[in-house]
Design a protein that fits this description.
21% strand; alpha/beta; Arc Repressor Mutant, subunit A; 2 domains; five-stranded parallel β-sheet; binds calcium ion
Length: 238
């Protein structure tokens, strides 16, 4: 059971999505334009936002920017065309997942469940009764109990997905993870995501941790294989 903000200006699709999510017990709040979406996202603090890109007022990309400036609420983006998806991925906005229209209601449910499971995992990991686990590297600390990341002395805001990804990589320093493995570990078996989703999340993580070729670049690309966390790089540069 979660509180879901559905932002979609096509009324028919909006009510179909609403009905479908309510059917499995979720509470749904609707918004039909950009400004209302931002206002409701910030005032109601939903568990997840299902967000269309083309909206009146301003678009879903601007909504994501404004929401992300204040919170790490998971966002499932709805895109109408592959070109829109390319744009979203290119912008590295911080959406947690994407669905291309037309999509089936079953697919929507699967994505929503996967995102909720991930943020539930993060909440479980941040429970105070759990022993604090601090992953500490030069210029980077990851407090897995408090769900806090500090890079170069600055607090870094990560989404639930980004945090899971960083925690997995950093807990296994030096080990190379394939994209397939990361997708399965972080997104789960039932989520249908693209390899590019991983790449786009890694790019965003790097940017948030300090950007490529900077002392904050802890995540190495291993060509043809995948990614690995390397504090050696970070240590050398510090
Ligand atoms: Ca629309």
């Amino acid at each position: 059971m979660a509180h879901i903000l559905v932002v979609e200006d096509e009324k028919e699709l909006a009510s179909l999505v609403r009905r479908e999510l309510e059917l499995v017990g979720h509470r749904v709040t609707s918004a039909y334009d950009g400004p209302t979406a931002v206002e409701k996202a910030l005032s109601l603090d939903p568990d997840i936002i299902v967000l269309d890109i083309m909206l009146p007022g301003f678009d879903g990309i601007e909504v994501t920017r404004r929401v992300r400036a204040a919170t790490s609420t998971p966002i499932l983006m709805l895109t109408a065309r592959a070109t829109e998806l390319d744009k979203v991925l290119g912008l590295e906005l911080g959406a947690d997942d994407y669905l291309t229209k037309p999509f089936s209601m079953r697919e929507l449910q699967a994505r929503v469940s996967a995102i909720l499971r991930r943020s539930e995992m993060v909440r479980e990991q941040s429970r105070p009764r759990e022993a604090a686990e601090l992953l500490s590297f030069p210029n980077l600390t990851i407090d897995t109990a408090a769900h806090e990341v500090t890079s170069g002395g600055q607090r870094v805001m990560l989404t639930a997905t980004e945090f899971s990804l960083l925690k997995l990589l950093a807990s296994n320093q030096g080990r190379v993870f394939s994209r397939e493995f990361l997708l399965e570990e972080v997104w789960g078996n039932d989520a249908v995501v693209f390899d590019r989703t991983i790449d786009s999340h890694i790019q965003r993580l790097r940017k948030k941790l300090g950007g490529p070729d900077s002392p904050g670049d802890f995540i190495e690309t291993v060509w043809g294989v995948g990614y690995r966390f390397s504090a050696r790089i970070a240590g050398n540069a510090s």
